[in-house]
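Weekly modeling sync, notes
Attendees: S.R. (lead), two postdocs, one rotation student

Agenda item 3: backlog of single-chain predictions. S.R. asked that every request posted to the team notebook include the full sequence so nobody has to chase files. The rotation student volunteered to paste the first one in as an example of the format we agreed on. Action items at the bottom.

Example entry:
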Amino acid sequence: MKPLNVAVPPPPTIKSDFSTFESPIDLNQPFQGDSPDSDEEGGRYIVGDHLYNHEMYGSLRKGGAVDWYSMECLGLAAATFTSMFSYQSLLTVLQPMMNTQFNLSKQEVTAVYRLVQMPMALSFLFGLLSDCYPIMGLRRKGYMILGCIINAVSIFIIGGLSAHFESQTNAKDRSSTLIAIAIVMSGFASIGCIITYLCVHTRAIELSQRESLRDRGAIQASYLIFRRYVSLLCTAFALSTVGTSGTPHVSLSTSMLILGVISLLPLPLVFRYWREEVYSLNTSMKIRGQIFWKIMQQKAVWRIMAFIFFFTLFLGIKFSDSTGVVRAWAGAATDNSLLVKSINDVVMMLTMYVWRYLFMNRLWPSFFGMAPVLQIVPHLLIASLVTFDGVRDRYLYRSIYSMTAIADGIGLLNTIVPVTEIVQEGSEGALVGLTLTLQRCVNIFVDTNSVGLFRGDNFYTPAEMKRDTSSAHWDVLLSLILNFGINALAWVGLFFLPSQKLDAQQLRMYGGFTKAASGTIIALCLSFFVYGLTVTLLTFIPGASCLRLVGGAGCS
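Predicted structure, as returned to the notebook:
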């Protein structure tokens, strides 16, 4: 029998563009056809969604990728501006107001400053609320506008009270009730800022999930870079209003009123150009809470929470008094604080650009592992040079110490990059809010102890430091080495971090559950928050304000 000479055509070349896959396949729907679709004009064959695991190889959310610098993101950019500008400028103007108008001691000013920032710990509750009860069907836009209005109204009230205080020539005539109202309104203004921040942060993550696997992270970088630009504008606002000389260029009440107006200016753009999906059905807090309780038990979720916890805690601990001594010895103690802040913003901005174009698709541990290195090594180098009187030059000090801002830039990414891969539709606000709550509770703990356990006089004698003695050199340097050792513990968090995007998705789908994780996360947040709140409130109790734990000089 003669063999058949039949030409077997080669298999078609499949050119897969992952950006074309938009939404996860519904496994309850039957397959539509059993062969690939073909594009006769271009000779391309596009395999149907059912032959690919969309969640691993394409975008994680339907809708298609968007460009940050486009009309579709104009509303989000406007909201990002008002959330960032309002919060930073609020803290900038509040600081001199508390020092001059509230009749508070230095210790009480620090405590009130912490109280104003504590509402961020409620991010989880606001996120869960927005997931359950959309305003006019909008989970982010409605709450964004509400938060902006709460912030602006509170700022106007604070401005009015400040004008009243300025009209009184005798500080002792100021009513303690009005001062308390001003502090409470500062808290409400902070709540408004936190709601807006939660909404824009969550929306940025939702849009990032619409990007393909290769490009996922581009809009995150643009979003974070834009926030640094707004931070530079905040510095310009502070320089033109509050100034750095101690005497404001304009009255504090006027600064507050200007801030309130600026925070409302972007609202028309938010109304017109903020675009998001409409959800017509509400979900009770009980049902959504039960669902999210199960989500927190996912191995992917609690491992990323553990990573954020270790990095936020151990990189956040800084012995600022010891650092201040080194800065004074280098002759940089009187440097313009706003200029230093601007330099740090620029360094963090450059870090975002480097991540976007060089590290976006590389292994996460190798990138995030550089944060402790870049926080420890430059600081240790310049501290060694200054303490032993090797080189005491303010410009060299600033040049080397500014490199530690790279670690701060990397830190901005750890609450958005891994979280994007595990956020599930319907619980975005709650999960993003949980990460912000965890981060804030840890920061409260660190800030509270910065004037207590981590005080400089726990490690060196201030009198010897002023005399610049050899023993003071060693005491200051050894305290910083202890600080660096604590910072190095942040590397423990890398053991919990997935290696990259696909690894995080695989862990979410197949990693299983840990029942104790939910309770552990909540208990950890509550413990840190209650500790910080208790220590802060002790500051206002005459019999307890002398405790060194709360920043006192010690009770006799």
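Discussion: group reviewed the output briefly. Residues 11-56 have pLDDT under 50 and may be disordered.
Action items: rotation student to repeat for the remaining queue; S.R. to check formatting next week.
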